[in-house]
Specification:
mainly alpha; 6 helices; elongated
Length: 105
């Protein structure tokens, strides 16, 4: 089973977070920036932060035509997106998984 299948078959938020932590640890040798690899991943909200932090990484890599970083970032984007949506579906991390609150000013 690949990482996405493990997430899809997870039955609890803790299971999803465990898969995401293992995946994050496996990326230590990937081309992703060290600061991203060092972001915390203990709570569901951290998964959303990692997902959001990947967007500028992938954008910058594609602008620089850096294929290694771009491929690693796109794969991580997919894994963390599936993880965040699974967490939301399991009822965990409601604050993190939903859209930000919009001010009505």
């Amino acid at each position: 089973m690949d990482v996405i299948e493990l997430i899809q078959h997870a039955t609890s938020v803790d299971d999803v977070m465990g898969v995401l932590r293992a995946y994050g640890d496996a990326l230590r040798d990937a081309a992703l920036p060290r600061w991203w690899l060092q972001l915390p991943l203990a709570e569901p909200e951290h998964a959303l932060r990692r997902l959001a932090a990947l967007l500028p990484i992938v954008n910058a890599a594609s602008c620089r035509l850096d294929g290694r970083v771009c491929r690693a970032g796109k794969q991580a984007l997919e894994v963390f997106a599936v993880g965040v949506w699974k967490i939301k579906g399991l009822g965990g991390g409601a604050q993190a998984a939903g859209p930000p609150a919009v001010s009505k000013h």
